[in-house]
Design goal:
The complex is a heterodimer. Chain A is of the alpha/beta class. Chain A has 8 helices and 21 strands. In chain A, the strands form 2 sheets. In chain A, strands 1, 2, 3, 6, 9, 11, 13, 15, 17, 19 and 21 form an 11-stranded mixed β-sheet that branches. In chain A, strands 4, 5, 7, 8, 10, 12, 14, 16, 18 and 20 form a 10-stranded mixed β-sheet that branches. In chain A, α1 packs antiparallel against α2, α2 packs antiparallel against α5 and α6 packs across α7. The longest helix of chain A has 22 residues. In chain B, the strands form 3 sheets. Chain B has a 10-stranded mixed β-sheet with strand order 4-3-7-9-12-14-17-20-22-24. Chain B has one domain. Chain B is of the alpha/beta class. Classes of the chains: A alpha/beta, B alpha/beta. Chains A and B meet through β20 and β21 of A and β22, β23 and β24 of B.
């Protein structure tokens, strides 16, 4: 408890420094919002294991770190940013190093009329509103959301006009470089009625330093809007990564979101989709592949508020070595949401006898005419399947790898963006090869 | 009807729903108060009251010390019902309980009876109204009944027959006096006094309960049964049950509950401990039908129970079966600690919530030994404004090789103002572990009802049939006599609820 309180005070000091460093460049309105958020954060404090939502994830290691505000912004311009990009993906890219926008490295394929993609900092100077009417993350509920607002420096704003179809994927690349950097990026996406867009978010580290990413993404989908969203986190093994995603879906909109966690020492992904119109189709897919001392916590809430919606959630996890994983998926069906069709599955594969998984799929249902089900399984590779492959002359390690790849493949093959799928197949394959070799 | 803004066509509110709701809204048939002058302690809780209870029960010194220790620990513990909202895990809500206004001891006046004739006729009358004819049961089906009326056992039957086999089946206060060594060895060994707030409270103030010991290699020839009954106003019942099955023994224990109608909420915080040694088997069945409160949620029992079994020996087995239809709030998780290699834990549950009832129930299976197996089958039925939550934990420890769990939770919703929730917690630390969890939520299909109607069954009968079919897997686990009662109870709790 005292550790939490001490750290809260530490962040308050960092905040004061940060406000001074802004040197009045932040508008008065924005500054008020930052201060309000900081007050809310102090009020909330960091969550502890006593909080039901944080039962299996300890923040002790995160609280021991002295994360500071990045001071030397943008000095370390990386020469080979292209190496971090998704190969062969014709995209419009925005590159951020230590949370700061790099215009020189950004650009790429041109976007059609009716799409506005810009970094948030440029907009902040214009209207100075971080939280306006469209803000989706609840206030005063989550310490990390408040921290994000307080320390927000830059991010991405995407607006797709009514009926516009964007064929070019929008790629956002966050590269962490400086030691002890705390980056609080914000993504704000609005897809208007009938519009379509694809967004790829990637988080990588250019060094082995400890750093913190605390991102907040807010997507708002208009009527019959489509959004394909991919989030790939492959930071270094010392990184702390907290990600909050809030989605609001109007009538007949379609969301397909995939969240892949490969890196990070401690990762927490929180996704809250709010289905506020009828006939919404919402899909959340997830893959987590961790090893060593990694800890990953996937936390999802699908809120059905209106009738005739369907949601599908499919999360798979592979845990090797001493890694630990958490899955908590909640489906909440309000009384008005009759004829809801919701399905949730969480499957886990443990590759080592020291790995640990805690899964907590939840159904909370207040409507009677619904079809809701969930399933969770935890197990190891089927010995019969291994035997089958071995009897056909395939070695033990190779057989294990084929089966494990197939297990992960079920999520990877749902990625519709081919270059990204190829990239993930490749990195997942390499990772598994290593994990299985370590085991043998 | 519907509070929501959603378009709810009037046609949806079919006559089926009405029948269902009628069925669900039946008055509690067994509500009445027996007027027996109780020998009670003043309300409130302090060390004096505990000494009073202990003295009343003529307990040996070690019991008093044990109680006082539990009480002192309880004082330091935090009431889970007053935690900050983000730290609350149980999905139930109710006003604060004033522990100082509860009467912790109340005993019917007459005691030490040698035969049923000496039992207060009014008491016997009460049992008759409940349909538990003690005399008949003595003859029928070979069921020995240790009837607990309020807090003191007034009649224990079939004792002689059991003692021939060396089986000890008696009230807890008797066991404390006559078998202190067994009580001392096993009491609190499964549910320690510090386990949780209500277990600590129970340890401090429990007044009576049942004690069972089955010696090595004995198969108990009859179903042991206790009928619990809450009577005197404002008396919290703090029962304590301890069942020990020695090596290679078998016992089936039944617990059934009904309570009279009452306006004030009554607190019930029982503790049940089961210990199964090598090759032993315990089957524990419960039918709970305490007063659920009226349709506005007034009155009704708070049922906060700690039930846990320890499979200490190899190849031991503990099986919990429960049918929960009563209580305004049910908060209980009969659990199994699978310590012995090859031990087996089972949990079969039917929980019905109607009116304003809230149930947060489930189980916890903790796999510690190798090759341990557990099965969880839970059926939840919600009607009217009932909220039904399954909360279950499956934990596979690091050294538990080849552990296996299968969980199935099905919920049925009847009416559009109720809720059904499933919150499983699965923690696996061993890759050999295999855990499966499945859950589904549905309602009684109109086509199913139509099919039955078409074949001449009334909607009400159809609902009864479908609900009984839905619960069949669990009801099949109950001993015969209980299964009949349970089916009847399901009928009474739900008759007339179809949508």
């Amino acid at each position: 408890m005292t550790q939490t309180a001490g750290r809260t005070a530490w962040y308050v000091e960092r905040f004061d420094e940060f406000v001074r460093s802004l040197n009045g460049s932040s508008s008065a309105q924005l500054l008020t919002q930052r201060k309000e958020a900081m007050d809310a954060f102090v009020e909330l404090g960091f969550p502890t294991a006593r909080d039901e939502e944080w039962r299996y994830t300890s923040l002790a290691a995160l609280l021991r770190q002295d994360f500071g505000v990045v001071e030397k912004l943008g000095e370390e311009v990386l020469s080979d940013v292209d190496a971090w990009r998704v190969p062969n993906l014709q995209s419009h890219v925005l590159v951020f190093t230590d949370g700061q926008y790099q215009p020189a490295l950004s650009g790429g394929a041109s976007l059609p009329e009716g799409v506005r993609v810009s970094n948030l900092a440029s907009l902040l100077h214009e209207d100075g509103e971080v939280r306006d009417g469209t803000s989706l993350a609840p206030r005063g509920k989550d310490a990390f959301v408040e921290l994000n607002t307080a320390f927000l420096r830059d991010g991405v704003h995407v607006h797709v006009d009514k009926g516009v179809r964007v064929d070019v994927p929008i790629e956002v690349l966050f590269i962490a470089a400086s030691p002890n950097a705390a980056v609080h990026p914000r993504l704000s996406v609005r897809v208007e009625d009938g519009a379509e867009a694809t967004l790829v978010e990637r988080y990588v580290s250019a060094s082995d330093h400890v750093h913190l990413t605390n991102s907040l993404a807010e997507f708002s989908l208009g009527e019959s809007a489509h959004l394909d969203h991919y989030r790939v986190q492959d930071e270094n093994r010392a990184a702390f990564h907290i990600a909050n995603l809030y989605v609001r879906e109007e009538r007949h909109s379609v969301l397909r979101s995939t969240c892949c966690t490969l890196g990070g020492r401690l990762t927490r992904n929180h996704v809250h989709t709010h289905l506020i119109g009828e006939g919404v189709d919402s899909t959340l897919n997830g893959l987590y592949l961790v090893e060593g001392q990694q800890h990953v916590d996937n936390h999802t809430l699908i809120e059905h508020a209106q009738p005739h919606c369907q949601s599908h959630e499919f999360y798979k996890g592979i845990l090797a070595d001493d890694s630990t994983g958490v899955f908590r998926g909640q489906i909440l069906v309000h009384q008005a949401a009759q004829k809801t069709d919701a399905y949730q599955a969480n499957r886990n594969l443990l590759l080592s006898d020291r790995a640990e998984i805690n899964t907590k799929p939840q159904l909370e249902i207040y409507a009677d005419d619904v079809k809701c089900s969930h399933g969770a399984t935890i197990g190891q590779l089927d010995e019969d399947a291994i035997f089958y492959l071995r009897s056909r002359g395939i070695g033990s390690a190779a057989a294990r790898q084929v089966l494990t790849r197939a297990f992960a493949g079920e999520v990877v093959e749902r990625i519709r963006l081919e270059p990204l799928r190829v990239l993930l197949e490749d990195s997942v394959g390499k990772r598994l090869e290593q994990a299985i070799a370590n085991r043998a | 009807m519907s509070e929501s803004t959603a378009s709810q066509p009037a046609a949806d509110k079919s006559s089926d729903t009405q029948t269902l709701e009628e069925f669900a809204s039946r008055e509690y048939e067994w509500g009445f108060v027996t007027d027996i002058e109780a020998d009670s302690a003043p309300p409130g809780l302090n060390e004096e009251i505990i000494r009073f209870i202990s003295a009343k029960k003529e307990e040996p010194e070690f019991m008093l010390e044990w109680r006082l220790k539990a009480y002192r620990q309880w004082l330091k513990m935090e009431d889970p019902t007053r935690r900050a909202p983000s730290e609350r895990w149980a999905k139930v809500s109710y006003p604060d309980i004033d522990y100082q206004s509860v009467v912790y001891y109340s005993a019917p006046k007459k005691k030490e009876l040698s035969s049923l004739d000496e039992v207060d006729p009014e008491l016997l009358e009460t049992y008759k109204k409940l349909g538990i004819p003690l005399e008949e049961q003595k003859m029928l089906a070979g069921v020995a009944v240790d009837a607990v009326f309020d807090s003191v056992s007034v009649a224990t039957t079939f004792k002689d027959k059991l003692s021939e086999l060396g089986i000890i089946f008696c009230s807890f206060s008797e066991a404390v006096k006559e078998h202190p060594e067994l009580v001392k060895k096993y009491l609190g060994s499964v549910v320690p006094t510090t386990d949780n707030f209500f277990a600590a409270l129970n340890s401090a103030v429990f007044t009576d309960g049942s004690f069972v010991y089955i010696p090595k290699g004995v198969r108990c020839p009859m179903e042991l049964s206790t009928y619990f009954r809450i009577n005197a106003a404002n008396t919290g019942q703090f029962e304590r049950t301890l069942i020990v099955a020695d090596e290679g023994s078998y016992v089936s224990y039944l617990e059934g509950c009904t309570a009279p109608m009452r306006d004030e909420n009554q607190l019930h915080a029982a503790v049940v401990e089961l210990v199964a040694l090598d090759n032993a088997q315990i089957k524990y069945s419960t039918v709970q039908n305490w007063y659920p409160g009226d349709e506005n949620g007034v009155g009704g029992i708070y049922n906060f129970v700690t039930k846990r079994g320890a499979c200490r020996g190899h190849h031991s087995k503990i099986s919990w079966t429960q049918v929960e239809t009563g209580s305004s709030i049910t908060w209980k998780y009969p659990s199994c600690i699978l310590q012995g290699d090859h031990s087996v834990g089972e949990f079969y549950s039917v929980a019905v919530t109607s009116k304003m009832q809230q149930a947060d129930t489930g189980t916890k299976m903790i796999h510690i030994g190798d090759n341990t197996r557990s099965t969880i089958i839970s059926k939840g039925i919600s009607a009217q404004r009932g909220q039904n939550t399954y909360r279950g934990g499956v934990k596979i420890m690091k050294n538990a090789q080849n552990a296996r769990n299968f969980t199935q939770c099905d919920s049925m919703l009847i009416g559009d103002r109720c809720g059904a929730h499933t919150f499983p917690y699965i923690e696996v630390r061993n890759p050999n572990g295999q855990v499966e969890h499945e859950a589904s939520t549905s309602k009684i299909g109109e086509d199913q009802i139509f099919y039955c109607n078409q074949r001449g069954l009334s909607t009400e009968d159809a609902v009864g049939m479908i609900v009984n079919g839905f619960c069949k897997e669990v009801l099949a686990e109950l001993p015969m006599e209980f299964a009949v009662e349970a089916q009847k109870l399901l009928g009474i709790s739900l008759e007339g609820s179809v949508g």
